Known about the structure:
single chain, 210 residues, alpha/beta, 3-stranded antiparallel beta sheet, 5 helices
Amino acid sequence: GRDVTLPEIHRDPNDLLFLASTGGSTGEPKSVMLNDNCFNIAVHQLMHSDLPYDGGDRWIRLWPLFSATAAVANNHLPLCAGMNMLIRPFPVDISDFDQIIMYAKPHHMMLIPQLLDVLENSSLIKDVDFSYVKSVGCGGLGITKQFEERVAAFFEKHNMSCFLGFGWGCTESSAVAAHRYDRRTTVIGTVGAPLVNTIVSVFDPEDGHE
């Protein structure tokens, strides 16, 4: 990079940045247009919560980047926080996920429930101390109270002081709008509390009354 002049980039933060695919959980699957502001506001909210995101941490990225959560919270966030991102292709055969974790030793993991099942049932990590893990997020599918209780027992067995990160959001919000970000907001069966500068309201779908 010596003696190389980089071109100045003039970008309107309202310009289209990313077309995210929805899962169709609330209607027909569609593409949602997200701009720079959508990405940066979501990351700002997560970085100004009480989640232990520190520069130099190792973050393992597995999800393909077709969803807003994957692109924003699993890709843009660790880069903005100055973390070392370990990029691994999403495993077709998830049975070797325990081997990936043993090799990568990540501080942060954002997973789907099936990958937590692999860790829970693995003989490879049966007696491994995971006290270095700072956060474990889970998304993509709904989870049950029984699953959460199993995960909490797994965390305790492996000396993990973190909790299962879980939240609520939609593609249009770029990531989560409510999240568990400390012990107070981590209650089994709930999705945590609203993030920074987020107002949550409940409306009657019949008449729109709040």
